[in-house]
Specification:
CATH superfamily: Dimeric alpha+beta barrel
Number of helices: 2
Order of helices and strands: EHEEHE
CATH architecture: 2-Layer Sandwich
CATH class: Alpha Beta
Number of strands: 4
Structural class: alpha+beta
Distance between the termini: 31 Å
Strand order of the largest sheet: 2-3-1-4
Shape: globular
Radius of gyration: 15 Å
Oligomer: single chain
Number of domains: 1
Strand content: 25-35%
Length: 98
Amino acid sequence: MLFQLDVEIDYPALGERREQILRAEWAKTQELIDRGIAIAEWRKASARGVIAVWDVASHDELNALIRSLPLSPWLTRVEVTPLVEHPLWPGGRLKPST
């Protein structure tokens, strides 16, 4: 099932460990990409977090994965929205009109 994650991160609270924590987060994100879980991610223009789309089997798996993130203790807000396919655009792809 696809889920949209809208996450805000308290970057200043990372303090002196910021680079170390971010490197660990990027490694974990790459693992999730390689496993086909993290399928899209955007940084917010406000630079306070990310919007991501993950493909997981259940809410329980999603919660466990979020808790496993190195940045998890510094997530100030996590809004999760389950996504379902739109009947006009199977697969979520918008097609140009002909």
